[in-house]
Amino acid sequence: MSDIILHHYPASPFAEKIRCILGAKQLSWKSVIIPRIMPKPDVVALTGGYRKTPILQIGANIICDTALIARKLNAMAPMPDLYPSHAGMSVEAIAAWADAALFQAAVPLAFLPEVLAQTYAGREAEMQAFVADRAAMRKGSPSPRLPLTEAKNNFTLFINNLEKQLALGSAFLFGNSPTIADFSVYHPLWFIATKPVVGEIFNAYPNIQQWMTNIQALGHGHSTEITSAEALAIASGSKVVISGEGSALPELKPGDTIVACPTDYGMDPVQGTLLYCNEHEVVLARKDERAGNVAVHFPRANYSIKKAES
Ligand SMILES: N[C@@H](CCC(=O)N[C@@H](CS)C(=O)NCC(=O)O)C(=O)O
Predict the structure, then answer these.
(1) C-beta of 119 in contact with ligand 1 (< 6 A)
(2) How far apart are the C-alpha atoms of 89 and 57, rounded to whole Å?
(3) 53 ligand 1 Cβ < 6 A
(4) Hey, which end of the chain has fewer CB within 10 Å, N or C?
(5) Is the CB–ligand 1 distance for residue 13 below 6 Å?
(6) Are 20 and 183 in contact (CB under 8 A)?
């Protein structure tokens, strides 16, 4: 099996979700640190346009979006099972909600002017470039940033409920083994807990602090850093591995030129040839000058798929 390569940067909450899963599964992986803002030429060479963080590379297979990355890692290393059948519906529903609604409630708090000012103290030009990049990423998005009062209220309501539930005493949300729900709820909370000013909110939540400590104790697995040029060379020197076939979409068949695109924000389209599409993922083939022949995987949820206009 090819190495697991994670393209990420330290401050990314969605990347932290995956680093913690790599820890829970005690995996060894290669780490490529990518830019926080555009341009990201080496990321785009692999994905064909998708710019979000993180992405997972396995040889010439490029997996986009943590919903699908988590599923792939669970298939590669099944224990602990992130989708245990006794709570299958619940853990997936909570994970989907946390990755969207809970994360969206955390963003306005994490990017409060006083938080940004402390985070970027002495690096004002960098802060302005970051703010401009994120505004451009959300342009035309159907989910604009929540007003602060609403975000604060949603976030506080949720952590109040979580604190009460964790008082019952299990190490993780669904018992003594972590599931996808733990990692998806954890990353928006970690996003806030690691920020100046707003991070103090958790002082009043001892059960949440203990639960976060339990997740941190899982670690991040074992990583060694490589450059993005090395990752591109690995892609171009590897063969695409195909593990599905056919198309679950009646209007599209393998071989068609298609476009996949996130439907929430950062809606950068990726064009390629449909390899296969099932209920979990759509996979397209593309060729890049530097990355060579790659297969780019997207989850079905939160992505549109259509035939490319000729
Ligand atoms: N649905 C995506 C969301 C990923 C996401 O929004 N990541 C943030 C960073 S935590 C991002 O991409 N920000 C812009 C960037 O890094 O360029 C996933 O689950 O992977």
Answers:
(1) no
(2) 28
(3) yes
(4) C
(5) yes
(6) yes
